[in-house]
Design a protein that fits this description.
Elements (H helix, E strand, L loop, with lengths): L3 H28 L4 E9 L9 E3 L4 E3 L5 E6 L4 E8 L2 E9 L6 E6 L3 E3 L10 H10 L1 H4 L8 E10 L5 E14 L2 E13 L16 H4 L5 H4 L5 E2 L3 E5 L2 E12 L2 E10 L5 E8 L2 E9 L2 E18 L5 E16 L2 E14 L9 E2 L9
Parallel strand pairs: 1-7
Antiparallel strand pairs: 1-4, 2-3, 2-5, 5-6, 8-13, 9-10, 9-20, 10-11, 11-21, 12-14, 13-14, 14-15, 15-16, 16-18, 17-18, 18-19, 19-20
Length: 363
């Protein structure tokens, strides 16, 4: 004979447990909402994808890939505020609603260079513009790293067949002490391949200061040996400026790029250039034997802007180097890409150490 009282009691217990479970899930969704995730596609107003643009939220940052995409995952919020910057485009502040619903959200940046409608005639030649701007460097710029700088950064190094050797993403704090550069960092991601040291010879992952300092560039140290194009009068990030192309060929190696100089204060605001491929660029003894390193590609861009003191400092930049290294009959390809975007300096992390110890890999 069926005991309906016991059966009803078991059903009531299961229903009560189900209701409690559902109540818990609802409470968790209210107090612990899902993270805001989406894919952003950044392009310029010329419809070209913008690679290496930095996308900053209040708590995190990302860089776009070679096709202009970035996978965004922010703290739970109904509205996601993003600041997007790139060295050749105007910065953009935008808000993405969590209910947007699209798989990929497109964003367009305005090109940062605009021809001036009214041009003031100047008797300066392009070389004189560059020389006068270089002469004003001591008064315009901070002594490099004297008070410390912070950057949201990525450092990616790949080996043969694009196998990742080093993948770093996070904040870098850099300063000078006793004529040596020190770093502390807060990595969001750091992966170092066990055999990374076997592929790192000529170019080291910590060599990032050539992005930050003007005098690291040969165009600044030896400007009289360069050939200059005609001036382009432009508006750059809201300031009247001149864009000057430069070229130098030495022993079959060509360096080509441009400078942007502010008209009002003669400050160098931007520098970027490429270096042509160099076969057997460097020869050195390694633990694998004598290695010849060839430069297959080189690009660097540095951006300078005023800080709260009114002086200029590096606010961001990009560096990319592609190498091939031949030891005996074996050739290995590597590439290094570094992205930097300035963020307020802070000394919260106690792990200050020499800059060369930024990435731990076995030498």
């Amino acid at each position: 004979m069926i005991n309906f009282a016991k059966k009803f009691k078991r059903m009531k217990t299961r229903i009560t447990a189900t209701i409690k479970h559902l109540t818990t899930l609802i409470a968790m969704s209210l107090f612990f909402p899902q993270a805001h995730s989406f894919v952003l596609h950044v392009s310029g107003n010329d419809n070209k994808a913008v690679a290496n643009a930095i996308v900053c939220a209040s708590d995190r940052f990302w860089y776009t890939d070679s096709l202009g995409y970035a996978s965004i995952n922010t703290a739970p919020s109904s509205r996601c505020r993003l600041n997007i910057r790139h060295v050749t485009y105007e910065p953009l502040d935008t808000v993405i609603a969590s209910e947007y619903g699209a798989d990929t959200i497109p964003v367009t940046l305005a090109f940062g260079l605009h021809p001036l409608k009214e041009v003031t005639v100047s008797n300066r030649t392009p070389m004189q513009w560059v020389g006068d701007a270089i002469a004003k460097i001591p008064g315009h710029y901070h002594i490099p790293l004297e008070s410390g700088v912070s950057y949201n950064s990525t450092i990616h190094m790949t080996g043969q067949d694009q196998v990742p050797l080093i993948q770093y993403s996070g904040k870098l704090n850099i300063r000078m002490k006793n004529k040596e550069m020190y770093v502390s960092n807060d990595p969001e991601q750091m992966h170092v391949s066990p055999n990374a040291g076997e592929h790192i010879y000529t170019v080291k992952p910590h060599e990032i200061t050539d992005i930050m300092g003007l005098r690291n560039h040969s165009i600044i140290r030896d400007y009289k040996r360069y050939t200059y194009d005609n001036l382009e009068w432009i508006s750059y990030r809201g300031a009247d400026a001149v864009k000057i192309g430069f070229t130098r060929t030495k022993k079959g190696i060509t360096q080509e790029g441009y400078l942007i100089i502010g008209i009002e204060d003669m400050a160098i605001m931007h520098i970027s250039y490429t270096i042509s491929p160099i076969k057997d660029w460097i020869g050195e003894k390694t633990r694998r034997g004598f290695t010849k390193t060839s430069l297959n590609g080189y690009y660097i861009a540095s951006e300078f802007g005023k800080d709260t003191t009114g002086k200029y400092t590096c606010v961001g930049g990009t560096k990319k180097i592609v190498l091939s290294m031949k030891t005996g009959k074996t050739t290995v390809a590597t590439s290094l890409q570094v992205n930097l975007a300035a963020t307020p300096f802070h000394d919260l992390y106690p792990n200050w150490r020499p800059l060369k110890m930024l990435i731990p890999y076995e030498l």
